[in-house]
Design brief:
Layout (H helix, E strand, L loop, with lengths): L1 H9 L2 H13 L6 H21 L13
Amino acid sequence: MILMFLLARLREPSTYAGLGALLAASGVHVDSAVLQAAIQVLMAAAGLAAILLPEFDHGGAHPAA
């Protein structure tokens, strides 16, 4: 039950904005080399997800071909 709640929150962009605000407010500072490595890992994961996850049709209008 808690896991489902957390997974649902992780699908919302505002969750990441809130986490960033909490970390900044609590004084968490990350070395720039560590931050750069983390960003590269996240970019690679996003690219892999873009390749592997199917696209969903949300019923929007499609432009004429």
